[in-house]
Write a structure and sequence with these properties.
The complex is a heterodimer of chains A (358) and B (270).
Chain A (H helix, E strand, L loop, with lengths): L12 H4 L6 H21 L2 H27 L7 H18 L5 H20 L7 H21 L12 E2 L3 E3 L2 E4 L5 H23 L2 H11 L1 H6 L4 H28 L1 E2 L6 H14 L4 H25 L5 H22 L4 H14 L5
Antiparallel strand pairs in A: 1-4, 2-3
Helix pairs in contact in A: 2-7, 3-7, 3-8, 3-10, 3-11, 3-12, 4-5, 4-6, 4-10, 5-10, 8-10, 11-12, 12-13
Chain B lengths: L1 H11 L4 E12 L2 E12 L3 E5 L6 H8 L7 E6 L2 E3 L4 H7 L1 E4 L11 H7 L9 H6 L3 H19 L15 H14 L4 E5 L7 H18 L2 E5 L3 H7 L2 E6 L2 E6 L1 H5 L2 H8 L5
Parallel strand pairs in B: 3-8, 3-9, 6-7, 7-8
Antiparallel strand pairs in B: 1-2, 1-4, 4-5, 9-10
Helix pairs in contact in B: 4-7
The chains are: A mainly alpha (358), B alpha/beta (270).
Chain lengths: 358, 270
């Protein structure tokens, strides 16, 4: 009844190609952004920001990156953790070598290193597909972690191989390191997420996105319409790894602050893959929903008994969390195998007709 | 349908040769798919390739657009001879094709599928694409207009935003033709454009092929099993049998050729 596009006519291709062609969608997105920027930082506790919002937002970028590669370009990858590690170590090295360099620029540059590494490990995709490619990208995962463990230069010869984020200011405000306010960290990560979502959405609705989707859907037909498969696949690897690298840098500098390579092991690759499968392959919205679902739900479930005043032990709460979380994943995948984003789309279709049954 | 086809035939008798294949031989291990096949395609004509199943028709198209590399022979397109070239290069030279079994991008809408046909003609770099507003949007809109004209031309306005996976087979074939036309090819290869269609859909498709040929001036190479269609549409017909070219000429001549009749009806070998 409220979500109806009747009467909204478009008179130009520009209007028809807009990201949110329907007025209600535009209003909804503006409302969400307003809440994220103007309400959440002021009403939420530091605990909520640090344990739920910041990691969820950082994983949004990582999931967005993997979704470019797997969801849009159809190249299965299990190297996400490795590419995130490249971003993390690049951030650490750059900010310790050039302490004066603006930390936001460091984050953006650290993605470039990850992109280069991603292209290198994307080369096998020119010959192999599907599960075999996933196994080939596992090589990236294991090799990169081994490299960062093994070569002391990456951790500035720290005896335990740990890297710690030194404090950095932007325009006189402490944004990372000890003493950085959760609100500031949250707003910085949120802004990066919004910018990257917009950039990726623009890419996937332009020539590049159509190139990737063509390669994903049928590579032979893509070739006969003039697509160079090598260029299409490697560009997907580059942009995907760039985003994963930036996410890795933030994961280290803003969220964990002190990191060992174990934080970027293969489990992380799987977690990000689950995010896009649960959220929805080939969808920007799916990356966001998946990242929040996988990151936030376990935290909320673990805390729930305590918050609700149910007297059960911490162990018990954690076991229950695993059970409920697993069931939720299965439930959502049975309800809609194409992910939460599709579920949202179906809900909108239904709303469009409501209250009429046809 | 017949009259304009013959008119076009007369007009193109003197047309320049767009594509010529000389002494093409293609073998897969011991199997000879094509033996010493030579034929040419003149500008503006509709050229049919017919023959029984397994005669090498699709192999011939695959050679022309670079999927297969014949062991012997040369293919000359627009005056440039080539031996080995990648399919995407050949697409950029101006050869488009459709497949026997529909090869659309299932996850994309009709419009996006047709827009992929414009990829080789779009040039903004990825940074401008990421920013979108500005040069990229202008380019998107310019190419959207071209695609909309093709959508008009093939009468598929109503399915513009439908994911192609949901379309019936006949419409999918039409979208595939639209995608090929979006490339504005000089030479269009159609591999059984009417396979599995009912009479009405076939009539539509015939009309679109003729319109493409007449209005857009596209040269067409066509593989088809429906003899009525082939004889009506095409200016010249090449007949393949077991990889050999057994006849080549105007539809009427080919129809009455004894070797062609034997190939199609079978003949007892004593």
């Amino acid at each position: 009844m409220f979500y109806r596009e009747a009467g909204q006519f478009k008179t130009s291709y520009a209007a028809d190609q807009a990201i949110f062609p329907i007025l209600q969608d535009r209003l909804f997105v503006i409302a969400v952004l307003a809440v994220a920027y103007l309400v959440i930082p002021f009403i939420s506790t530091p605990y909520f920001l640090v344990t739920i919002m910041i990691p969820s937002l950082i994983f949004c970028i990582a999931a967005l990156g993997l979704n470019v590669l797997t969801g849009y370009a159809g190249q299965l990858s299990l190297g996400t953790g490795g590419f995130m590690a490249v971003g993390a170590y690049a951030t650490f090295k750059m900010t310790t070598m050039f302490p004066e360099l603006n930390i936001v620029i460091v984050f953006l540059l650290s993605g470039v290193f990850a992109a280069a590494v991603g292209v290198l490990f994307g080369l096998p995709s020119l010959r192999i597909k599907g599960f075999y490619l996933a196994v080939a990208t596992l090589a990236a995962q294991f090799f990169l972690i081994w490299l960062f463990n093994r070569v002391g230069w990456f951790s500035n010869y720290d005896p335990s191989g740990t890297i710690s984020m030194p404090p950095r200011d932007v325009f006189g405000i402490r944004v990372v390191g000890s003493g950085a306010a959760p609100e500031v960290r949250y707003l910085m990560v949120l802004t990066l997420v919004v910018v990257f979502c917009l950039l990726v959405k623009n890419l996937v609705r332009s020539r590049m996105g159509r190139t990737w989707m063509a390669v994903r859907d049928m590579d032979i037909a893509a070739e006969i319409i003039g697509i160079r498969l090598m260029w299409a696949k490697l560009s997907a690897f580059a942009i995907s790894s760039y985003l994963c690298g930036v996410a890795g840098g933030l994961y280290f500098a803003v969220y964990l602050r002190t990191v060992e390579t174990i934080a970027f092991d293969v489990v992380l690759s799987f977690v990000v893959l689950f995010m896009i499968i649960v959220g929805g392959l080939g969808s920007v919205l799916g990356s966001i929903l998946g990242a929040f679902f996988i990151t936030a739900i376990p935290v909320i479930l673990t805390r729930a008994p305590h918050d609700l005043g149910i007297p059960i032990s911490v162990d018990m709460a954690q076991h229950l969390e695993v059970i409920i979380f697993g069931s939720l994943i299965i439930f959502f995948l049975i309800v809609e195998p194409h992910g939460l984003a599709r579920l949202w789309q179906i809900a909108k279709e239904k709303l469009r007709r409501w209250p009429f049954p046809y | 349908m017949r009259a304009p086809a013959t008119e076009a035939a007369n007009a193109t008798e003197t047309g320049k040769t767009v594509l010529s294949a000389e002494n093409i031989s293609l073998t897969f291990g011991g199997l000879k798919a094509l033996r010493d096949v030579s034929f040419d395609v003149k500008k503006g004509e509709i050229r049919a390739i017919i023959g029984p199943n397994g005669a090498g028709k699709t192999s011939m198209l695959n050679c022309i657009n670079g999927f297969y590399h014949p062991q012997e022979g040369t293919i000359t397109f627009k005056g440039v001879a080539r031996r080995r070239a990648r399919p995407d290069r050949i697409a950029r030279q101006g050869i488009a094709r459709t497949f026997q079994n529909v090869a659309l991008f299932k996850g994309m809408s009709t419009l996006d599928n047709i827009m992929t046909g414009r990829l080789t003609k779009m040039h903004t770099n990825f940074l401008l694409q990421a920013i979108y507003w500005g040069p990229n949007q202008r380019e998107e809109i310019a190419h959207r207009e071209v695609c909309e004209r093709i959508i008009d031309f093939l009468e598929i306005e109503h399915i513009r935003n439908t994911p192609v996976g949901r379309l019936p087979y006949g419409l999918q074939k039409r979208v595939e033709l639209a995608r090929a036309l979006a490339m504005e090819p000089d030479l269009l290869l159609l591999d059984e454009p009417m396979a599995g269609m009912n009479l009405e859909e076939k009539q539509d498709m015939c009309r679109f092929i003729l319109d493409t040929n007449h209005q857009l001036g596209t040269t067409i190479v066509l593989i088809e099993h429906d003899m009525g269609v082939v004889m009506d549409l095409s200016d010249r017909v090449a007949v393949l049998d077991y990889g050999n070219l057994i006849a080549d000429g105007r539809p009427d001549d080919v129809q009455s050729d004894q070797r062609v009749i034997d190939a199609y009806l079978g003949v007892s070998h004593q």
